Each structure stands twice: as C-alpha cells, then as structure tokens.
Amino acid sequence: MKEEEVNCCQIQEWYPKFKSVSIRTLIHELPESFVEYLLDDSGPFLLPVSVSNEDALPNTVHNPYEEEDFQVLEGSGDEAEPSSPPSFPELELKIKESIESLGGAVFPKLNWSAPKDSAWISTSGTLQCTSFSEIALLLRSSDSLIHDLCHAYDSCGDKTLSRPQSFFLALRKWYPSLRPDMEFRCFVRGQSLVGISQREVTTFYPALLEKKIDLEVLIQDFFDNNVRHNFESENYTFDVYVTNNERVKILDFNPWGAFTLPLLFNWEELEQNEEANGIEFRIVESRCGVRPGLKTAVPYDYLDTSQGSGWDQFLRNADEELQQQIRSPEAGG
C-alpha cells in the first residue's frame, strides 16, 4: 500500500468528484486546537462548553446529599485545580449552520473513519447528531478515530508521513429511513470489480436471497459507469447503498487491505478472484452465518470472547456455517 492510495480515500478528496452519486455532505477543516483536544488524555473527560447552550448529555438533578460523598477535606493532599473545559465557538457556529442546512440531523466522520465504536454512548444509540456537543461526545469517546489521528499511514510501504497535514470533519445528512440490508462493500483490484459483500454482516436478511442477482448487475453497471475511470487508485474498496428505486449511492472509499475489513471474504480469496477474472457476491445465507463480532452495541473489549465463552462458541459456529455456505453449490456465490 502507498501513501497516495491512502490519501485518495480521504472524504475531502473523493467527495467533490462523486458528489452527484453520494449523499449530501458538508466538510469543515478542523483547527489544530480541536485535534489536540481529541488526542488529549492527560486529564478528565471534558466536553467543550457550548456557546449555543446545547448539551450532549441530559442535565443531572442537583442532589446535595450525593455531593457530601465527594467532598475533599482541607489538607488531605487530594486537592487539585479543577480543569476548565475547552471551547470552540467559531467551529461550533459553523457546524450548527451546517446541521441546519442538512435538515437538522447528521452523522460525523473524520478524513477516513466514523466513530461507530462510540455510538453506544449517545442518547439515541446511533451516530445521529443534532448539535456540536453531540458530535464532540462521539469523536472524543471513539477509539477507532485514533487510526485517523495517529496511524493512517502505518501500513504504507513508502511511509514518510505520520499524519495528514490537515484533518477534516465531514457532516453527512442523516437519513432515518436507510436500510442496513441495502449497504454493500465492493472490492476493486487492478481496476476490476472482483467482490461484493453484504456490509451489515451481523444480521440475516432473507430478501437479499431473491435480490442477489439483480443487485450484482446493478452494482457492476454503476461501477463501470461512475467509478472505474474516475477513482485514481487501482486497488481499493468502496461502500454503496441501493435505494428503493434502484439508485446506487456511494457512501465511502477505503484502501485495499490493512485496516479495511474484508467482511465475508478474506484478502487472499479476493486476490484469487482477480486471477479468475470474475465477481463473487457474498451475503449471509442463513441466521447461522451472521458475524456478530464485527458489530456490537458496546466496545468489543466489553465482550467475553475468551476460549470456552459463549461468544467464542457462537463465533466458531458462525465461521463453520459460513464456510459450509461458501462450499455448497446452492450458495450461489
């Protein structure tokens, strides 16, 4: 992997070229002070002071009896100067304006990644945000965004950069009607589409069994007409959403390999598909074939996946079922 290939997948690079076939997005360059805030773990977890008085978390009820438990006696040695929360008024007002222009609700992402691992901490349990404070809460709580901030180029053979010159915040219009079963990851090798995978692999969607052939044709045509000759890399992945009226929308681009999940494939299989000059389309064929470990409502560290645990056995069974589906001639892979 080369730095150039990673850079091409930054949303501020690809979105202007594919705006007409993507979802509405507004992009803001982040001030370095906000980037430093996201990286700072030296003190308590503090959300920025909102100049619009919009808090990400509900206000707590004042209870003087609880305060007694946390009082520090003079001379105890535990006194510390309280940390002052940061404030980013200019950025907040720009984001507030963008949220309003996008219909009042957005989901955020940085150059490459969205804070999917911190959705559990939001009041809605999703990435939906209606204020700057909610966006700051998701970004500040996310471990996956450390990739963008510190490790984006770690897999590059020609690595010269430790981070991009600038970081950007993309605000993408929130569509509550989007169906997760209609999102797919497409794998491109040597400018040829070699694989398509169901994106949400934690659920079995029976309707996909009937639509599989038509969806493959639809996505292949979209790739040939809109992506193949317009994206600058030879090897990459891109995520699409298929609407009810069979329009295809680009959601994201990612580099080939490294930190990108191959979902229902592995990278060796996809490279073999390139040699075979064919497309393989994989979906979850039954309830036993789901991959629960690829998405959870809480951070993955909260799950007990140690040998012999319930999740360990469940994942083993899911892998066995998936391999049986792939080998079965009825699987239609």
Automatic annotation (TrEMBL):
Belongs to the CDC123 family. Pfam families: D123. PANTHER family: CELL DIVISION CYCLE PROTEIN 123 HOMOLOG, D123 PROTEIN. It comes from the Eukaryota. This is Cell division cycle protein 123 homolog. GO terms for cellular component: cytoplasm.
